[in-house]
Amino acid sequence: MKKLLISMAMVANVWAISNFELAQKSDAVMSGYSDAKSEMVMTLINANAQERQRTMKSMVLEKEGGDKSLMEFLTPADVKGTKFLSYEHADKDDDQWLYLPALKRVKRIASKNKSGSFMGSEFSYEDLTAFNIDKYNYSGDAQEVVVEGKKMFKSERIPNSKNSGYTKQISWTTADTFLTMKVEYYDRKKELLKTAIFEDYKKIDGIWRIGKITMTNHQNDKKTILVWKNETIKNGLKDKDFNKRVLKR
Amino acid sequence: MRPLLGLVLLSSLLYGEVAYKGYVGADTQAYLTKPDGKHPANFTLQQQLELSYNVGDFESAISLYAQEDSYDLSRDHAERNERTFVRLDELYAKYYFENDMIFGGRNIRFWGALEVNNIVDTFNTKDFRTDGLDPQKQGAWNLAYTHYTDSGEISLVVKLYEEQQKMAAYPYAYYFFPKEAEGMPITYDATLQSKENLYRPTLYLNWSGSTESDYPIDYAFIGQYGFDSQRAFQQAVDYITPLVTLSEEAYLVAKVMSYNTMVVGSTLLKVEALATNVIDKNVSSIGKVIDDYYQVGLGVEHTLTGVNGDADLGLIAEYYYYDTFKHSNNIATDLNLFQVFQNDLFVGFRYTFNDASDSSIVAGAIIDMEYNEQSYSFKYETRMFDVLSVKADYAYINPSTTDPTAYALMGLNPNDPTADPSAHQRIGLNLAYHF
After folding, report:
1. Do B21 and A52 touch (CB under 8 A)?
2. Cβ separation of B267 and A110 shorter than 8 Å?
């Protein structure tokens, strides 16, 4: 019996995956898109189920040290043409600029605090930046769980940045494709703040891309649904397409 | 041949992207305390329309602004305040090459880093007919060539014509001149005076960029040769009519300007500065020399996030200084030249609710330490039904009782010019439907 228990433990150990390895695999299946262009529809739902919608055009350039992204607001009409340019950095604060078309002004943004709400939504700026392994600390193994008959890994990561709005994130990742299906975000008081549900994954040119994220805030009962439409990848975008000059175009 | 040309034009139009945006709005101000004889309130309809046509690397746009003030519909000419007009703000075409861009037409440019008063934002003249406390900029005709680098750009801009500065007429509350002087009525004539031809080009060489470091900096340096944005004021007295006519006089300068923003954590540090060499110092009919001058603006903006839930609180402090190099004992002062910020401090905040309506409150005080003048303002902005913007504001101005500042002149009592100018208070509301 003792021998059987030892051999079972050895098998379990062989099959176990560390939280860090899981993050690497999860990152790998979503990487390699080079760049992406898409339209985004953001639906803000308040506690009384009233909905407001924003639409945006988005471009992202995949970079080793941190992605570059440009977002242009199409609606509401009074902010049409407003653009947000961000250079993400794993080792320092991001560089961010906002273009205000009514003033023809490019304004520098201080990006130290990443927990601020993005355009009144339940997404923070750090939720919208691409997943980057180097931004988190990992320890221990992922836990194998079954959710609705599907084998998944439940994993924990802790943000490195002291300016993160979170103390802990718990994610559920499919065991076969290593795609993230759900993330729970814990606030600075270590209480559950938000849950994100990731849906509508599709393969574009062999790379997995997300189609929809529903972010529910458990503390204010608000919800935001973000949907990507008409996404294309490997468009041949270059660094100069994310230069400050594009803000005024 | 003609149908073929039409077909080519039509197909290129269909191939390009046409976009539009604009608003139709109503703007009203009620003046709780105001100088005698001036309007107690204003009601204005406003419309703005922007059309753009882009195809490939070619971009073009037209932008029009129009407003109709209710007093200008009055049968009594003395009540009309000349706040009804249509203005062409932009009409341009530009073409992008790999790392270059050429531009021709009329447009509005923004230069600056500070929030309340941008001392280097001198390219466009202001139009004081919209709101005397928050004047709009009007377009300027120019040609430009820009070369882009990885970290910034260098531009040569040639302004082709020096625009008039438009103002509303008495009895509009923000008519910044006394009603009369020495018993004669005063009128402002917007026709710009100058020894020079107003079509003489003004050149700007602009170099700007960003550094990548732990404390990144956005920097810009501008050299200018041509007409100054600061204007001298001419006074012509006609004893027969009788009438005193005030008008602005443009003169030539060589100027260097710079504006910079440094990011330090959650704090933005800002500097704007300029130094001006006045080329023809003896232009003014007021009998004083227009001296070389310099201006400096320093600012700090610190943002606290997650205040009271999702809200952000931006704390802003800015200081502005203006002085001449004092090359003569008989120089035109900043009051003669209508320089509003000479030794002024702004302290205020921006509270951003981060809600679905993008609501915000901006409030602050400007303390003029040179002439003992204070102004306080509070503005609330929000959005309803996703298409209707709502802005409400309150302003209180305590004008100088010792010096003839713009606010003091605005508040002079025409029936008793020796009396101290009264404090000014207003509440305003702006509703606009955006499309």
Report:
1. no
2. yes
Evaluated on CA atoms B335, B337, B340, B341, the torsion sign reads: negative
Is B407 within the bounds of a domain?
A: yes
In a domain? residue B10: no
Best A63, A74, A78 residue to mutate vs chain B (most B CBs within 10 Å): A78
Dump pLDDT digits (tens) for A133-158.
888 999 999 999 999 999 999 999 99
Full residue range of the structural domain in which residue B47 is found = 18-434
Q: Which residue of B has its CA nearest to A217?
A: B310
Q: Could A52 and B356 be called an inter-chain contact, meaning their C-beta atoms sit closer than 8 Å? A: yes
- What is the spatial distance between Cα B282 and Cα A114, in angstroms, rounded to a whole number? 55
What residues of B are in contact with residue A108 (Cβ under 8 Å)? Answer: 113, 218, 261, 263, 268
From A82-91, B54-63, B100-109, B418-427, the region with the lowest mean pLDDT = B418-427
**B350 near B362, Cβ under 8 Å?**
yes
Q: What is the count of structural domains for chain B? A: 1
- With beta carbons less than 8 A apart as the criterion, state whether B85 and B67 touch: yes
Residue A9 has pLDDT above 70, yes or no: no
Query: Does residue B13 lie within any of the structural domains?
Result: no
Q: Which residue has the tokens 């339209």?
A: A39
What are B54-66's pLDDT values in tens digits? 999 999 999 999 9
Distance, in Å, from the CA atom of B102 to the CA atom of B94, rounded to the nearest integer, reads 6
Q: How far is CA B283 from CA B190, B198, B199, B334, in A?
A: 18, 15, 18, 16
Contacts of B349 by beta carbon, 8 Å cutoff, 6+ apart: B313, B314, B315, B316, B361, B362, B363, B364
Q: Please, are residues B127 and B136 in contact by the beta-carbon 8 Å criterion? A: yes
* Sign of CA pseudo-dihedral B332, B335, B338, B343: positive
Q: Is the pLDDT of residue A94 over 50?
A: yes
> What's the rounded Cα separation, in Å, for the pair A159 and A135?
6
Instruction: Judge whether A240 and A249 are in contact, CB under 8 Å.
Output: no
Give how far B33 is from chain A: nearest CA, Å: 31
> What is the model's pTM?
0.91
- Mean pLDDT, range A17-27, rounded to an integer: 94
Query: What whole-number distance in Å separates Cα of residue A54 and Cα of residue A77?
Result: 9
Chain B residues within 8 A of A119 when measuring between CB atoms: 358
Please check whether residue B44 is in contact with residue B67, taking contact to mean a CB–CB distance below 8 angstroms.
Answer: yes
* Alpha carbons B262 and B218: distance in angstroms, whole number: 7
* B278: in domain: yes
DSSP tag of A127: H
Backbone angles phi, psi at A205, to 5 degrees: 50, 40
Who wins on pLDDT, B305 or B258?
B258
Interface ipTM above 0.90:
yes
Q: What is the CATH number of the domain that holds B413?
A: 2.40.160.10
- The CATH H-level superfamily of A18-248 is Lipoprotein localisation LolA/LolB/LppX (2.50.20.10)
The CA distance from B387 to the nearest CA of chain A, in Å, is 6
Contact B358 A165 (CB under 8 A): no
Question: What b-and-e string marks burial along A182-204, b requiring 16 or more CB atoms within 10 Å of the CB?
Answer: bbbbbbeeeeebbbbebeebeee
Among B428, B420, B416, which Cα is nearest to B399's?
A: B420
Cα A232 to chain centroid, rounded: 18
What's the mean pLDDT when you consider all of chain B?
A: 92
Q: Tell me which chain A residues have a C-beta less than 8 angstroms from the C-beta of B214.
A: 92
